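>> received
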Amino acid sequence: MSADSVSSSDALHDVRVLDFTTVMAGPFATRMMADLGAEVVKIESLEGDQVRARPPMRDGRSAYFGHLNAGKRSLACNLKSPEIKELIYGLISRFDVVVENFRPGVMARFGLDYTTLSALNPRLIYCSISGYGQEGPKAHFPAYAPVIHAASGFDMVNLHYQDGADRPATSGIFVADVLGGTHAFGAIQAALYQREKTGKGQYIDVSMLEAMLGMLVFETQEAQFPGGARRPLYTPLRTSDGFIMVAPTSPRNFEQLSEATENPEWINDLRFLTNADRNANWAVLLQLTEQWTSQRSAQEAEEILSAHGVPCARYREMAEVLKDPQLEARGALTRIDDGAGGFNVPNPPFHMSSSRVQARDYVAGLGEDGARLLQRELGVTADVIEKLKQAGDLV
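>> returned
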């Protein structure tokens, strides 16, 4: 499959995106657009998105990069070049969306800010993703996802939930990037819908800090109204060969847990009579449950509890998750090939009854589509393309 493999069954089949994003938050948003059939052209530096060099690497190709950029074309160029800038200006009238995640002010220095580009295309939807947003005292602070995790309160919230821990947890999972990218994706769809009614584009300013804050629903309110009882915490329960998560949150779940663990006396235990009682004695309930789970394998405990309707899941390694029959039944993964071999990537986590929602099997090499795109869209001749390459302005 190529980047051209779209049809009218794709929800975004006629949407065209110039993607100036790098690393994760922006590429996550634009890959979701490509998954829905948008034509996404990734505008890269001459060196390329730095993720192209990040492991896992196979024959010089990064599966990490492929995961984030499947279905996109690549145009690698020098954005400081006046000639390249003029070509970008020529493309703007032909595209619907621009997405960028540079630090605020960088695109303006390139002459590629919203004010400049919207003058060329009033229907343009322009989305900026940054750590703190485009305005405010921290707008120009450098910020990657781990920095935003710390700044948003997310890491300290988690620390308060870890009894006995004396420092925030180490993490390599970039929640702020994925969350910021997801919000950008949704905001762009809303802007496209509004444009259908007004005929006008608009500017979208996504703050990863605010995305993280929005995720901390209970914690935002507790910080304003402190002093209440500690909320129930969901802790891993030990099994004979690992751990399992058990979450008997509703009254019916509690009854099912009592039945599954063969502890019918819990139903009349004064510690567990009501929701308030169970919340007050939540740790005790989990300790008693762990006495049962610790005598069984994680698989056995999961099967018994699930059969009784108790919400639970054993803790799994990623290699096992990727083989989950549930994911297979849902078609949750698509196999793509970046030229160094095939690998699986997740599709968006939703299905649409009349639209294809799937990663596209195309991962562009650096600048692979640039010359062809400029020739097709703007009529740039082969001689001009060669001069740009010789000048070091185009890959």
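>> The domain at 237-314 is CATH 3.30.1540.10 (formyl-coa transferase, domain 3).
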